[in-house]
Amino acid sequence: MMEISEPSSETKLACSRELHPVEPLWKRVPTRDEQGKSLSDFMMIVPKLGTRPPHYIQKTLNEIEQVLAAYRQVVIFADMNLKLNTLWITVKPVPGICLELAAAVKIRVPEALLVAHKQE
Q: What total of structural domains would you count in the chain?
């Protein structure tokens, strides 16, 4: 079982909940780390989140923020789009981290769904 600890005040993630004109993710998402290594990323959907009451949205965002803080050593970028109900996360290339992090989000936000390519 995975345990996620609460972040301390000195390890809080930088977070912005301000509204800005939307720039496409491909313009904002980093693709390489400081050493030039390719980064990994994945997307999750939180169905109907943007239509929920404000207190529910805030609680969900807080849960996601706590997960991201617990994985701050590997999380490079995260974006929650409430219009599309999508969560995009970019991480350092650590084997298995995308599935582990997605599972951690799913534990805290059970309605969250990992978007994946269906293999034939």
A: 1
Over residues 4-45, the pLDDT tens digits come to: 333 344 444 455 555 556 677 778 888 898 889 999 999 999
CA distances from residue 49 to 71, 92, 105, 112 in whole angstroms, order as listed: 23, 27, 14, 10
User: How buried is residue 11: exposed, middle or buried, by Cβ count under 10 Å (0-12/13-18/19+)?
Assistant: exposed
Number of Cβ within a 10 Å radius of residue 45: 15
Report the predicted TM-score, pTM, of the whole model to 2 decimal places.
Answer: 0.79
Task: Establish if 41 belongs to a structural domain.
Answer: no
Domain hosting residue 85, numbered range:
47-120
78 and 87 Cβ atoms separated by less than 8 Å: yes
